[in-house]
Amino acid sequence: MYIPLLLTDFLDRAVKLYGDKIAVIDDEKVVTYFELNERVNRLSYGLEKLGVAKGDKVAILAPNTLEMLEGFYGAFQLGAVTVPLNIRLKPNDYLFILNHSETKILLVDYELYGLIDPVRDQLNVEQIIVHGGRKVKLEENDLDYEAWLAQFPAKPFDRAEMDEKDIASLLYTSGTTGDPKGVMLTHRNNYIQALQVMHHLRVSDQDVLLHVLPMFHVNGWGSIFYYTGNGATQVMLRKTRPDIIFEKLQKHGVTIMHMAPTVLNSLIQYYDENKRNISKDQNVRVVIGGSAPPITFIAKVEDEMGWEFIQIYGMTETSPLTTTSIIRAQHLDEPKEVQNRMKSKAGYQMYLTEVKVVNEKGKEVAPNSQEIGELVIRSNGVMEGYWKNEKATKEVIRNGWFHTGDMGVVDSDGNIEIVDRKKDVIISGGENISSIEVENILYEHPAVIEAAVISIPHEKWGETPHAVVVVRDGEAVTEEEIIVFARERVAHYKAPTSVSFVEELPKTGSGKIQKAYLRNQFWKSMNKMVN
Questions:
Q1: pLDDT tens-digit readout, 200-223
Q2: NCBIfam families attached here (predicted)?
Q3: What is the DSSP secondary-structure string of 47-84?
Q4: pTM for the predicted model, two decimal places
């Protein structure tokens, strides 16, 4: 008999097999899977009372909390679509997303409640419900989440009839080149993604996940599904602060964390400053997605901090994860420095996914670590399309393949290495320069905490590399010293020709550095982003 792949299955399995096991630790709030399920049922009954039906949108604006986790499953039982919102946006961004998505109900955390006020009168949302509503003064007609939830029964909810091809979540991209685009992911997209990722990350019922990566970011890379289904304990994190992360890591016996490279960088800095007070006896897996990390990061994490480093690659449009850099059996005897180099790459395709790097003619590039092409992906995780944007959908999904816009090379072992985003490649005097390669060199400088390399206009070469650098506290370094340091380690044409120093680099909600924002400051006087 055919059984549709529905995301409600993951919580059902956890309740059946791990009902009395701790499911969520959210500071003072601790609930078992039985108790989590009861709260989810109450939420489903409450949403039903408000008129939510299959296909309706329920948006969630919250940090990583118990309430956010249960929000997904509470909506799914109705066949509703979740719209997780980036907590770092501006009120006008929320206005666009909530109205464009046709959101009916907005669940918002009390700490973020004020972000809605400036655009409230323009919203088409029917009801706003506030997590921790008793801690703030509510506007008329808004509801306090806990008081409202308590009105409804905890008994099993009679679920809507659903198909695995139904849309489960609508996730909006950052919109650095225009309005955000809503990525439609189905139950099937998310379900199969969960199955493949939990295999590669070795997820089990003995895991304790610390939710470092925001859950609004592609459903926390799908973590809310495969850790739930495996009965793992999930520790919530409101603030992405290194001291809080290390405190929770040691207090709760955390075994795995997902995060962006910038967050890992902050943890490394904190470790260096507090290593005497930090235990290294935990078997922690740290999963990193985003730009390729410097190899020095990997050596630090594994050799000194005692954690296992796992690099992955993915995009919102692919549910998201598609490759991993976990060392394969045939390379386990390689020297540590060779293995670290492998781990810094995007790696090889996960189960149930096809990934290749192709040239402009659509042919696969040679596995020589030299020929550059674009990563294209075919999998069950590729989105249905962009919500109400058929034109943009057709631009990225062609002949059954999703075109990522990421440029890469392939080595002789079949490992993919991302050399840059298509838009981030610097073309100076006709030479292609990988901003990631140059950034990794700059991270080797002892005074550099963070660095971003971007293109800026140049009268002779068209454009040239420029470094934007954050300097470590107590250190001093000049522009000339940075340039000389880079020139000693890469070809001169790749080295930055100028440097600016800032206290902080602009980042997305998931911790990625916003290079487009940095570039715009240098190119705004030009008619186009090419000189």
A1: 999 999 999 999 999 999 999 999
A2: PRK06187.1
A3: HHHTT--TT-EEEEE-SS-HHHHHHHHHHHTTT-EEEE
A4: 0.86
